[in-house]
Amino acid sequence: MKGLIIATHGKLSTGLKDSVNVITGMGEQVETLQLNQNDNLDDFETDFLEVVSKYHTQGSIVLVDMIGGSPYNVAMKHLKDYNYHVVSGVNLAMVIELLTNLESMTLEELTLLANEIGEQSIRGFTASGTIEATKSEVDEIADSENSEYATGGEITFARVDHRLLHGQVVTKWSRLADVQTVIIVDDILYEDEYMAEVYRSAAPVGIEVIVAPNKVIGYAYQNNTLPAGRVMLLFKDIENVEKAYKEGLHLENLQLGGVPNDGSKKMVFTAVSLSERDIEILNEVEKDGTNIELQVVPEESGISYKEALKRFNKN
Q1: pLDDT (tens digit, 9 = 90+) per residue, 87-130?
Q2: Are 279 and 294 within 8 A, CB to CB?
Q3: Would residue 166 show up in a list of annotated catalytic residues for this protein?
Q4: Residue-range domain boundaries for the chain
Q5: Domain 132-314 has CATH 3.30.70.360
Q6: What is the largest CA-CA distance in the chain?
């Protein structure tokens, strides 16, 4: 088993571990070391060597906060004597990606991945940011003559989740579905250039995120112009699913993963509440041949739409 060690000034390392645990539930796999203001550096070095020694056989990745800091200096001091690699500039996205690939990659590959994530996950944003590229991408999807997008991509996963592209979707569902493209289907979000860019910038490594209106998705499905490869669709609410179906979309499977109660709905499953109107829409979607299931996280079992209907009618 390889190790993932975060060594930082103060409580940054434990804060990152806690954040990882909240998002992925994998925090227990992270080793942390803190160097506080009045700590003895020799004691910190002793603790560091004890931790890296635990993983000497398969090796470890040591993430430090800054080049030239004491955690960095200690790690670099013993780099030739122990089996580990050092990466400076740790951030949350980097930790999550490394954990996900820890056992499937070599130390060299993990180090290169950390560098890549570090470059891609640190960006600057202003209120006047532009998403001209996003509009262009959506236009290309809608253009059946465009050679890049007229490739017959396959929708392999579709989910209703009011949080859209959040931690669980980024780190779990997109990987389980093994998708190359995530398309957020939402008319209102498509017109909100600032928020659309926010979601695009949250794209997981190796996955393209596009925000598109329902009309474009319906057209792309009907004319076989979805992006190449495996595609995930995300809907903020059930109403957007209905709009997309009216535009020509059809799904083999639809997952309900996050539908909050706005006061007019009944809870039928953890994090999923439905209204009479939602039931009307879902009944029509099911009649169209779509299998509907309710599931929040991969680690916990879901329920069928049939079971959800029983619970709805009982309440």
Answers
A1: 999 999 999 999 999 999 999 999 999 999 888 877 766 665 54
A2: no
A3: yes
A4: 3-121, 132-314
A5: no
A6: 69
